[in-house]
Amino acid sequence: MSTIDASIVTMAIPKISQSLNTPMNETEWITSVYLVLICMLLILFGKLADQIGRIPIFQYGTLVFIIGSLFSGISSNLWFLIISRGLQSIGAAMTMSTNMGIITEIFPPSQHGMALGLNGSIVQLGNVSGPAIGGLILSIASWHWIFLVNVPIGIIAFMFGHHIFPHHREKLNQINIDWPGFITFAGFILFFYLAIYIGQATSYVTPLVISFFVLALILIGSFIGIENHVKEPLIRLSIFKNANFTIAIITTMLIFMTVYFNNVIMPFYLQNNLMFSAGTTGLILMFIPLANIISAPIGGYLSDHIGSQKISMIALFIFIVPITIFNFITPKWSILILLAAFLIFGFANGNFQNNPMIMDNVGKEEQGIAGSLAALTRNIGFTTGLSLSTSLVYWGVSIKAHQHFTSYPYDHPDWFVYGMHFSYRFALGFIIINIILLGTLMLRKHAKN
């Protein structure tokens, strides 16, 4: 639910904007606030989870998420909805930062690949199926139900967790948080994304946007300085000296950036270029998560037997096929080619085993912070992919039109296709960078052996 809600709102923005009588650019903050607050809070809750217990943080987070979903669903104005989404994001950050740590704590190392692969299939299902599920809900109900549907499911999830999870006493006396580190890190996330969102709407070379980028750079520098000198840092930065862990983090971010290209671009292409309804678009987009949820456990099983790096490298080469299709496809092509590309994309995504690569390269005492870093990387990939894909599409449209565009060119749909091809060239570049990074790591490992 927490990952679905990062993307499900994209399909509902037009209806929410019309229903609440607010401009589209203001309504888009419903998505942005959720993603940015999660990124700000993940490390904090990951650290708390390592200190007082991952299961309590996860369970309390489920309750907070349910309450935030209820308030979002009954919202009657934009500001109440944005505040409710903020509450929802707190609960989401609490569950996202702890789920993988709980898994590695409960399952033996020999089963981490399978367990994390199954978890990955559910997470990825949420990540890529948001627009599809949103389209289906909106075809039969009002936008309020994209939030209200979480309430009964969330209650069932909480009760199931209460019954299944081991019960441990919270170690509240062990809480020791590096607050200066958290404040500087949260400030970095805030100003970095303010710069991205404002730059996307206006220009990246305005004094305001440049000053926000500079301030973000100062804050991340301050955060690194603080973490290197405090006794109990929010993140032990020496964790990044492990090349396996660091490259796993980088490749994960680039993969999730690539995944979000589809979430942003394909709903426009399917509805405005191929003229499908929102409901049909939702059904078509379901091909990606269906392939993903089937292939991720298989990838996890193979990861336990041949290694997460090898299976991930195979997945990267598979990614090249659908992204190449996206680079050339036009409305004249058969829809069957696009459906096949979606299936292959979902299959590749499910087999990219980023979770085992991340979690198996840190000690038991840092599983919480590693899990929160994995979730942070995923969310940074999504938010960056959202802004980057949008900017690249309309950059391409502007090149084709010989004038500046920031919205869909309804009078010239072929310009959008050109912009779509332009953006997917960069997505292909991300995959090639990942192949180089992971290939270098595997060659170094082979040379040592």
Write up what this structure looks like.
The mean pLDDT is 86. The protein is globular, with a radius of gyration of 21 Å. The longest helix is centred in the last third of the chain and has 36 residues, at 413-448. The chain contains 20 helices and no strands. It has 449 residues and is an all-alpha fold. It has two domains: 4-177 and 234-448, MFS general substrate transporter like domains (Growth Hormone, Chain: A); 178-233.
How many structural units, i.e. domains? Answer: 2
**Tertiary shape:** globular
What would you report as the Rg, rounded to the nearest angstrom?
21 Å
What is the CATH fold-level name of the largest domain? Growth Hormone, Chain: A
The tally of helices reads 20
Helix content: over 70%
Fourth-tier CATH superfamily name of the largest domain: MFS general substrate transporter like domains
Give the DSSP E fraction (strand runs of 2 or more residues): under 5%
CATH architecture descriptor of the largest domain:
Up-down Bundle
Element order, helices and strands? HHHHHHHHHHHHHHHHHHHH
Residue windows where pLDDT falls under 50 for at least 5 positions:
none
Biggest pleated sheet:
none
Count of distinct strands: 0
Briefly, what CATH class of the largest domain?
A: Mainly Alpha
Give the overall pLDDT as a whole number: 86
Helix-strand makeup class:
mainly alpha
Distance between the termini: 43 Å
